[in-house]
Amino acid sequence: MAIYKDGENWRAVYRYTDWMGERKQTQKRGFKTKREAQAWEREQLIKTKADIDMTFSSFVELYRTDLGMRIKEHTWKTKDSIIEKKLLPYFGKKRLSEIQPKDIIAWQNEMINYRDENGKPFSPVYLKTLHNQLSAILNHAVRFYGLSCNPAAKVGNMGKAKSKEKPFWTKEEYFKFIDEMMDKPLSYYAFETLYWTGIRLGELLALTPSDFDFEKKTLSISKSYQRFGGKDVITPPKTENSIRVINIPDFLCEEIQEYLDSLYGIKPNDRMFVVTKSYLHHEMNRGSKAAGVKRIPIHSLRHSHISHLIELGFSAVAIAKRVGHQSIDITYNYAHMFPSTQVEMANKLENERGELLG
User: Fold this and answer.
1) What global pTM score does this model have?
2) β-bridge partners, 12
3) Average pLDDT of 246-257?
4) Distances in Å between the alpha carbon of 111 and those of 119, 124, 127, 156?
């Protein structure tokens, strides 16, 4: 550790041994005073020792190092934006060990009372997301760095989770919509694939001809499309359950083959739907308006597919396997749509008992 005069400013150099036993060095220039340079040097020492007396800002750097490579890039970008804009301005300079429940309450009140230039507050769902991110960071400190407790957990959440009610189209509404899409083949085939397979939008935009086996009538889902920094990026799917093989109906096989035949020179590993997500959102708006049906988000075509399968009588386990969910998620999010109500259950138990007693 050393402090040097660097022209009119000061420079701090911190040397340490990393977890592999290798000597490392980090430095920072531009301090106006020697005291500022020494304060930075002390903070580096605390951070290296993983001491909970480090600032929240320093701990966030450790959190990023610990988890940054384990989380999908687009998910991490969302988390990082919340950290930079909503957490560091309030907690960045506080010592991790000094953050108290009262500080969390004050921050929550700030978020709840926020209004943008149009007087609009944060949504309840977004407020819950903000608190969850703060709590996740503090939980990490509790589990791995010796923080005694999570003050955010003591305070409790703000906002609320998304409603379990999922907007969707009935078969009749979808048929009205898709009739309006027939003037644009790319849009037509894209929406047909989304509705009849239940795949996610990112999964659709990553599809290549090699993902289809027309003899076995299957579609393999193994990747997802994202757009980062103006570049197209193909990533693994959302979860391990998302890697799956879907059986598709004969008519969809025929439609996809027709579509591929119309794409001159397409190769087995070329993307089939080379459009932006915003283009398909625009097409949803156009088709919904022309068909006279309610506008639903594109992701709700997935909900529409699931609701269709429930109507056909398939179990939560079978549906979950097809759409890349866990069966418990299907049960939780779509329980209100399954036909077996409490009254029906009671009646069946009553009838069964009567049959057994003769």
Assistant:
1) 0.63
2) 3, 28
3) 94
4) 13, 10, 7, 14
- Nearest 5°: the CA angle 19, 21, 24 is 85
CA 113 to each of CA 116, 133, 276: distance values in angstroms, whole numbers, following the listed order: 10, 19, 35
**Any idea what DSSP says for residue 84?**
I
Q: What is the pLDDT of residue 187?
A: 95
| Residue matched to tokens 């086996």 | 213
Residue 137, Cβ density class (10 Å: 0-12 exposed, 13-18 middle, ≥19 buried): buried
CA Rg value for the chain: 27
Pull the structure tokens for residue 165.
């009610």
* Spatial separation of the C-alpha atoms in residues 227 and 308, rounded to whole Å: 31
Q: Find residue 353's DSSP bridge partners.
A: none
Instruction: Tell me the three state secondary structure of residue 343.
Output: helix
How does residue 58 score in pLDDT terms, banded at 50, 70 and 90?
confident
User: Distance (Å, rounded) from C-alpha 197 to C-alpha 297?
Assistant: 16
pLDDT band at 248 (very low <50, low <70, confident <90, very high): very high
Give whole-number Cα distances, 305 to 63, 193, 239, in Å: 38, 11, 19
Band (36; pLDDT cuts 50, 70, 90): confident
